[in-house]
Design a protein that fits this description.
Elements (H helix, E strand, L loop, with lengths): L7 E4 L2 E8 L2 E7 L2 E2 L2 H13 L8 H6 L15 H11 E2 L3 E7 L5 E7 L5 E2 L8 H9 L2 E2 L11 H10 L4 E5 L8
Parallel strand pairs: 4-5
Antiparallel strand pairs: 1-2, 2-3, 3-10, 6-7, 6-9, 7-8
Helix pairs in contact: 1-3, 3-5
């Protein structure tokens, strides 16, 4: 199961999410959203319009050099930042990140509602329906693959774009996060 909650702190300003950054911590103060169908739709749209190439991991860039046919797929390489930014924004504990693989072995991430089984997949457009069915059939709930499941800096960049009122800063110790 995902351990993403261990990086989110509720405080007087709303919520803060942190990640280790060398000997310091990077913190993003932001507002979480209640998990409603209206907010799912609103947040999905906001995240999708803010997905840019700088959010794609270096691993994906190395694996698929420029000109590779994968780059012709809409939103390819964006599933991880989209999935986890969405997860951090939603103020609920009923969503789980899921990872599956397509027929070529490429990983794909999305969220599942543990109560009703609904799938929230912001980057599903990169697959045809039959491909997506195959990917979903291989899905397993997992936590983020980063070190101790700490959020990546690219997630914070995306979250700031989606919520410009958020505040990004660095601290020396976690005690410095305003409670």
């Amino acid at each position: 199961m995902s351990k993403h909650h261990q990086y989110i702190i509720k405080n007087e300003e709303g919520h803060s999410i942190f990640r280790p950054k060398g000997k310091r911590f990077e913190v993003l103060s932001f507002e979480r959203l209640e998990y409603t169908s209206e907010n799912v739709s609103l947040l999905s749209d906001k995240i999708r319009i803010n997905l840019t190439d700088d959010l794609i991991s270096n691993d994906v860039r190395k694996k698929y050099p420029s000109g590779h046919p994968r780059w012709n797929r809409t939103l390819f390489g964006q599933c991880v930042p989209a999935t986890f930014a969405f997860l951090y924004f939603m103020n609920t504990n009923i969503l789980s990140p899921v990872r599956g693989e397509d027929i070529e072995g490429e990983g794909h991430w999305w969220l599942i509602d543990n109560n009703n089984g609904d799938i929230i997949d912001l980057t599903k457009d990169q697959y045809e329906t039959d491909e997506l069915d195959c990917v979903y059939s291989t899905g397993k709930k997992r936590g983020y693959y980063g070190s101790k499941e700490a959020p990546a800096g690219r997630f914070f960049r995306l979250m700031q774009r989606v919520q410009p009122t958020s505040n990004l800063y660095e601290i020396n110790t976690l005690r410095e996060i305003k409670m």
